[in-house]
From TrEMBL:
GO terms for molecular function: mRNA 3'-UTR AU-rich region binding; NADPH binding; quinone reductase (NADPH) activity; zinc ion binding. Residues 11-322 form the Enoyl reductase (ER) domain. Keywords: NADP, Oxidoreductase. SMART domains: PKS_ER. It holds the Pfam family ADH_zinc_N. The lineage of its organism: Bacteria, Pseudomonadati, Pseudomonadota, Betaproteobacteria, Burkholderiales. This is Quinone oxidoreductase. InterPro entries: ADH-like_C, ADH-like_N, ER, GroES-like_sf, NAD(P)-bd_dom_sf, QOR-like, Quin_OxRdtase/zeta-crystal_CS. GO terms for cellular component: cytosol. NCBIfam families: PRK10754.1.
């Protein structure tokens, strides 16, 4: 039997159960992966609470790294013994091993270890599409990233700085401000005591930023719009504080013909070619040292409830791993 986390109802961290499950052989197009490390992400909270619905009972977790144990018919791009990682649906990464669609797996280059991979696949590929595809950041740009000391935030700060951008980031404490600054954030704003809209306007001489990357949602949405320059882009890629209010087109017009988008990683990596290109870009910047992956917390898989409490309580920074 294999240990895994399962939920039979939506709710708080207490609904996650550490149980024995049967992991069978992979069917056509599938692979069985033995996990070395598992990533923790805020999207896991969305599935746990039911904000993102899924059939119950079900698993949780979207990313992990490990070794292929077996493959089903028709699988040729990975084989038993390959080191692999993934960030994909369906949820179920909170487990010692699982059977999953093989198309979601990418091989790990020698320069990337299991901890790095599990800590960066979802957050790092998110940073890649945000910076390189949703709004391609240029050296002349000033950008705003909310939760700059979080997992995605630290990667975005480093990568955007390497692209030559000026990086403004919101954080919740002086300690997080120091962490973000050490990772390329030029102007950390401690939102608990500073008005981030006023600070952004002051930093940019009243012009506003080219793009806002906002994973907070409800609490920051209107302020984020107010931070944008004319023809700026609002990128809402998460809802940590709750869903954003209904968008009125007049709000975009009155602020300077703004653009708005709600992207997801899974739409940006929907094809095998897109997935491999996105992962390769990420692996390259990590392997050459442009981006350093900060694993700041580790929890045993059985202690996942505490990991969720700390994540929701904004006690975590950088990336968090669960150890099966």
């Amino acid at each position: 039997m294999t240990k895994a986390i399962r939920i039979t109802e939506n709710g708080g961290p207490e609904v996650m159960q550490y149980v024995d499950v049967e992991v069978g052989d992979p069917g056509p197009g599938e692979a069985r992966v033995r996990h070395h490390t598992v990533g923790l992400n805020y999207i896991d909270v969305y599935f746990r609470t039911g904000l993102y619905p899924q059939p119950l009972p079900g698993g949780l977790g979207m990313e992990a790294a490990g070794v292929v144990e077996a493959v089903g018919a028709g699988v040729t791009h990975v084989k038993p013994g390959d080191r692999v990682a993934y960030a994909s649906r369906p949820p179920g990464a909170y487990a010692e091993a699982r059977v999953m669609p093989a198309d979601s797996l990418v091989k790990l280059p020698d320069a990337i270890d299991f901890d790095q991979a599990a800590a960066m696949m979802l957050q790092g590929m998110t940073a890649q599409y945000l910076l390189r595809r949703t709004y391609p950041v240029k050296a002349s740009d000033t950008i705003l990233i909310h939760a700059a000391a979080g997992g995605v935030g630290l990667i975005v700060c480093q990568w955007a700085k390497a692209l030559g951008a000026t990086v403004i980031g919101t954080v919740g404490s002086d300690e997080k401000a120091d962490l973000a600054r050490a990772h390329g954030c030029d102007h950390p704003i401690v939102y608990s005591r500073e008005n981030f809209v006023e600070r952004v306007k002051a930093i940019t001489g009243g012009q506003g930023v080219a793009v806002v990357y906002d994973s907070i949602g409800k609490d920051t949405f209107t302020g984020s719009l107010d931070c944008l320059r004319r023809l700026g882009m609002m990128v809402n890629f998460g809802n940590a504080s709750g869903p954003v209010p209904q968008i009125q087109t007049a709000d975009l017009v009155s602020r300077g013909s703004l653009f708005f988008t709600r992207p997801t990683l899974f739409n940006y990596t929907a094809t095998r070619e897109e997935l491999e290109a996105t992962a390769k870009d990420l692996f390259d910047v990590v392997a050459n040292g442009t981006v350093k992956i900060e694993v700041r917390q580790r929890y045993a898989l059985k202690d996942v409830a505490q990991a969720h409490r700390d994540l929701e309580g904004r006690k975590t920074t950088g990336s968090t791993l669960l150890i099966p």
